[in-house]
Amino acid sequence: MANWSQLISLALFSATIRSLTPVLYPALAGIFSERSGVLNIGLEGMMLISAFAAVVGSYYSGNAWIGVLWAIAAGLLTSLIHAFMCITLKADQAIVGTGINILGIGLPSYLLLKLFGSQGISPIVNRLSKWRIPVVVDLPVIGPILGEHSPLAYIALIMVPVSWFVLFKTPFGLRLRSVGENPSAADSVGVNVYLMRYIAVMISGVLASLGGAFLSISYLAQYTRMMTAGRGFIGLAAMIFGRWNPWGALIACLIFGFADALQATAQAANVPIPPQFLLALPYILSIVTLIGAMGRANPPAYVAKPYEKA
Amino acid sequence: MKPAVEMRNIVKQFPGVLANDHISLTVEKGEIHGLLGENGAGKTTLMSILSGMSVPDEGEILLNGTPIQFGNCEDAIKQGIGMVHQHFMLVPVFTVAENIVLGNEPHKGLQLDIDQARTMVNRLSSHYGLKVDPDSVIRDISVGSQQRVEILKVLSRDAKIIILDEPTAVLTPQEVEEFYIVMRALREAGNTIIFITHKLQEIQEITDRTTVLRDGKVVGTVNTKDADNERLARMMVGRDVVLHVKKEEHQAGKVELRVENLFAKDARGLPAVKDISFEVRAGEVVGIAGVAGNGQNELVEVITGLRKQESGKIYLGDRDISKMTTRERIYAGLAHVPQDRQRRGLVMDFTLVDNFLLGYEDSPPFIEGPMINYREAERFSERSIEMFDVRTPGAHVTARTLSGGNQQKMIVAREFQRNPTVLIAAQPTRGLDIAATEFVHEELIELRAQDKAVLLISMELTEILDLSDRILVIYEGEIVGSMKANEATPEKLGLLMAGG
Asked: What is the CATH topology of the domain spanning A7-294?
């Protein structure tokens, strides 16, 4: 029967870290892309394609890290499609992103059938083994929460200060943000607007791909159809909530991750709440936080606007 | 000595327009060279080419006698050419220092060295007397300060040839005076300055020599001190121009617009209009003079119904319109040429036909049952384009593609044809060239001759003095002076405008 006291535990916070990882990646990915002025609502699709590529890589090599490389390659390729359409061809960025999302559903399903003869799931593959961080793992409280996770979870957390530093403390970041805020101004001082945007979208693709790989060869050890379950979009919500700042996005991801971990723990603990409601909880929470954040959100001025050189 | 800049036979074709038609321009080292021409004459295009922002189809450029070729701005910057654009090239959410170093950032290892940037900005700022705060965010500072940032940006890249594209358009009269001082200081320091403008007064004030462009061609280059305003205007427009519109004596009729004890607040909730009362009669132009930001915008918005008054009454003829919606006021006979034509006057991405339809879209003959009668709308647009000489390739292009002057002509065409009893014209010639200004002035005087009441709000004293029958001066939301136009002088008005 229900056991409420089981709900709040150190394991819940550890699960929070696990749950926030696949949302934090697309959130950071979105920040890079949109800070440069390129809307990227195709993150969900990029994650799905990369998740599948990771499984394929791991399946054929037997090494999950090769799977990660495959995922990165797939993410780069997908983001290049996005960049080419949005930056070079100046297509409508929302439509290109939607196209990538549809591709993200269709392409893995097709290849799943071709490669594995399966409709919805791939074979089980080798997955990344967790890292135990020496010293940290033995600390009280912190150890059980942060001591033992997927390497991709640690990379995600480290990417928060790294992204913040790159975006806000380096000349590269200043230029990246300038092409998203006023590309003509950037151009007039010799910043290559197109190149900066390509780089930003490619960084975005790599980050999204790590999110995908986390789901398929770390959290699980196989690809299942539409396994991202909207996390790419939740990531975008976290980006907006966090005002296009990595630290802000981390806070939003913590809220989502906690809600997600809570619902999983609650289900396991048999609390007398319908599981459908529990499953919906993180998403409801996302909508509520977004409504709260929307009023003060200030997106980069030139997001979704292709740059036309005079 | 070789000239600092020599541009030879520059040709630049845009779709449908030959912007530069074999233009040759020589600028000597250390001079302030005026580039005079109407909107669309090709001044900005020519300078975009010199600054590397666009590539010419034909022609060559020599710097100090050496041929050069630019593919992009970076090359031009390296050659010591810097341009201050009419529309500022600043990132609004960045600080002053960040904007100045963008593209040329000092760094410590991987990290942007913001301290060094700040020091550099302070050093340049005090060296040239261009006061800025390196840590202010651009969107929080005044337009005048933003312009100083633009100039510092150019100077920080060691520019020796500085192009200024209509730099005074956004400045208040006091800021313009300060700006002249800066320009002279830059010339003293050995820089060469190319100064784009369409204002004759500025050419006379500051330039050594002037090249006049018209329709993409060079009309001629003159020593400024040898040329008077009439001659320059003729070169620029291609015909004699009436610099000061002449108006016939006209008897004012009954009161058409009456404002009584009006109070209103601005967007921040602070009092902006304080107890303003006045009246405008049929066949009379009443001018409101004042420095920008003294409540003019709020006053116009309250009269036109775009802003709610705190208290007070507005009468159109005998009717109290204070509680009416904007639409009802238009039907009651009020027309409005708004100050910000791109924000309030036009929908920039609509075609000219749709823009002409605005405010007419629910009245015959433009509706037929529930539908818009587009044939009628097109006829109206084409007639308006013809009558008001709007220069456009057709009625189906978007408003955005027209020059500022032609956009303004569209609004004037639309509003004047409402056949209003009262017209509110807020800065109707801002940013317009001489020919378009002349046109708008003549149309306003024509309305007066037709016994319409005209309320003119302008920052340009000459405009106020030329057109008005009576002049009111607004200062900090209050009317601080009222006089007949023939009793007014620029000195008198200037003193009142400054709150004296």
From this structure: ABC transporter involved in vitamin B12 uptake, BtuC (1.10.3470)
